[in-house]
Amino acid sequence: MQLSIIKIGGNIIDDESRLAGFLDAFAAVPGKKILVHGGGKLATRIAEGLGIKQQLIDGRRITDAETLNVVTMVYAGAINKNIVAQLQSRHCPAIGLTGADGNAIISHKRAHLPSEPAAPTNPGTGLQTSPSPNPGALPRIDYGFVGDVDSVNTPLLTSLLLLDQVLVFAPLTHDGKGQLLNTNADTIAQELARALSSTFEVTLIYSFEKAGVLRDPGDETSVIPCITPAAYEDLKSRNIIFAGMIPKIDNAFTALRTGVKKVIIGKAEHLPRLLTGESGTTLLHE
Length: 286
What we know:
- Helices cover 34% and strands 23% of the residues.
- It has helices at residues 10-13, 16-27, 42-49, 65-89, 154-162, 185-196, 229-237, 245-257, 271-276; strands spanning 2-8, 32-37, 56-57, 60-61, 94-97, 105-109, 113-114, 140-141, 147-152, 166-169, 172-174, 180-182, 201-208, 226-227, 262-267, 281-283.
- It has one domain: Carbamate kinase, CATH 3.40.1160.10.
- The chain is an alpha/beta fold.
């Protein structure tokens, strides 16, 4: 059986008309399907309106206890349930989930990681660092209540999919001990794809603001149609693929090595053409 797992980001979430157009296309996707959504800018706006300072490091949100409350309300509440309601209106039976629902995804709190590059800590930033015994060592970042995935409840999700339910995942997981954790949506999509590939033929689609992986970031027509592991290493060495695209593609190849049939990167508005291979960049294991 075919299963499409599609991740959308804030560029779609934050635009009501674009989201509506995407959901029209998503509802028409045949077969079993899962939608994983990011958080967009709403959580930041609400947090700042409440006087809760927001910090991002390399695009990752530092999630303290107050911020966790906000993202839980926004991701699992406002955004997730709005998407579910819109899908129902399109005759697409959907269930909104976080990792805590049905014990769907268990994670652990991320360990403190070295920051890059090494720099003196500014007390005014609120960045938590652990003291280092070596003066030249890198300060260590505490991402707060951020989770890294340990396991997926494959039997539960399989049973729901076999009941023809569309699953809509918000980017939250839990540790099995009562603690919710903010978790990267790209990672959730990858972990779901890996876990469910034992039961389904999984196509994983990462949609973002570009038409695909580009040879020239300023030229939307320069999409690289196909990337193998060897081609990926070559493109990185020539700095054609760099910065934020690297973790996305690393995740994609990890998924391919662990049973996912196909990974496609492209624009959410091009979803029907992404599924047929007419648009975007397809990543292949070999």
